[in-house]
Amino acid sequence: MKKNSTKSNARKKKALAPAPAAKVDGNSNNVASPVEERYARARLRLNPRRQRLLRAILDAADETCFLSSRELAKRYNVDATTILRTTQVLGYKSYADFSTDLRQHFVARITPYAALKAATREKRSVVDHIDHALDKALENLKVLESDLDRQRLIELARLIKRSRRVLVVGLDFATSLAYYLAYGLSALGFDAEAPVGSTGNLQYKIKALGSKDLLIAISFGQCLRDTVESVLRAKRQGVPTFGITDRDTTPIARYADSHVVALVASPSFLNSYVAPMAAITAIHVACAHIDPKSSLTRLRPTDREYASGTRWYRETKSNNHK
């Protein structure tokens, strides 16, 4: 027992060994997470031991992000009060708020494989995992409802209305978001496109843009390189830019002229796009109502198509099953 205790203490000391402070590199895609930013700002108010404690927690986020304050205290051989006071120095009102940011820090920096592996460590049934994912999606949606800058969306709608052409850039899993946004804008009569295909095709599309056009970029977390570079290239050409992302500190948020935040945090191996989809729906609504007369004029020809039976699937007599 003594030998095992010695090994355990050695692991704890190693975990609390000095580590470099968090950095925010403006020229790197490795953007500091919200909890890292809080740590960087509060570092001088933390004694060396608490600094090492926080770095150890952040570095082992795959194991610490799902622990309670008591479990975390036990892991690092400190009392729960130390954990709570340390998180309070970072500016968190509760441990739950710190835990939420710690999960976001973990999810933003891991591969889908690592995320799924971490989730499997939790003692949950399949139903529990489903409920957890749905709860997180609803939580993201509630944050959007609470924090969304409505006036910013109205300004975006006005900008879209003034723009000659709207190019929506969303790659990988964000491709579906970009298509949905562009398709809805097209239905309202705007010249909107979400280019697909090779990087070269995207570059050609951006090269054709000018100051009377608009580029909307959609990316989350560290953000995809091609999406960020699309924003930078457009800005060099004098093209107005707008971003949809999940934090105010992402490259998309920092480089686009304006942006909205929609959380994508998820306990799954993939991001949850419930909140971004809701934000895009809000953009469509703003665009439709910024000039309702024009929107109605554009949609009027489709009214007969929707009312007729040709658009919808109808069972024929030969297909009816008795």
What's the topology here?
Layout: H1 2-15, H2 34-42, H3 48-59, H4 61-64, H5 69-75, H6 80-89, H7 95-107, H8 112-120, H9 126-147, H10 150-162, E1 166-170, H11 175-187, E2 192-193, H12 199-207, E3 214-218, H13 225-236, E4 241-245, H14 251-255, E5 258-261, H15 274-290, H16 292-307
Parallel strand pairs: 1-2, 1-3, 3-4, 4-5
Top CATH class of the largest domain: Alpha Beta
How do the helices and strands follow one another from N- to C-terminus? HHHHHHHHHHEHEHEHEHEHH
Quaternary form: single chain
- Name the overall outline: globular
Q: Give the class from helix and strand content and strand pairing.
A: alpha/beta
**Corresponding CATH superfamily of the largest domain:** Glucose-6-phosphate isomerase like protein, domain 1
CATH topology (fold) name of the largest domain: Rossmann fold
Q: Compute the gyration radius: what is it?
A: 24 Å
Average pLDDT number:
85
- Indicate the low-confidence ranges by residue numbers: 10-30
E-strand count: 5
What is the count of distinct domains?
Answer: 2
| Beta-strand content estimate | 5-15%
Number of helical regions: 16
What portion of residues is helical? 55-70%
Can you summarize the main beta sheet?
Answer: 5 strands, parallel
Tell me the span between the first and last alpha carbons: 74 Å
Largest sheet: spatial strand order = 2-1-3-4-5
Q: In CATH terms, what is the architecture of the largest domain?
A: 3-Layer(aba) Sandwich
Description:
- With 322 residues, the protein is of the alpha/beta class.
- It has 2 domains: 2-109, no CATH class; 146-301, Glucose-6-phosphate isomerase like protein, domain 1 (Rossmann fold, 3-Layer(aba) Sandwich), CATH 3.40.50.
- The chain has helices at residues 2-15, 34-42, 48-59, 61-64, 69-75, 80-89, 95-107, 112-120, 126-147, 150-162, 175-187, 199-207, 225-236, 251-255, 274-290, 292-307; strands spanning 166-170, 192-193, 214-218, 241-245, 258-261.
- It has a 5-stranded parallel β-sheet with strand order 2-1-3-4-5, with helices on both faces.
- Helix 15 packs across helix 16 (292-307).
- The protein starts with a helix and ends in a 15-residue tail after the last helix.
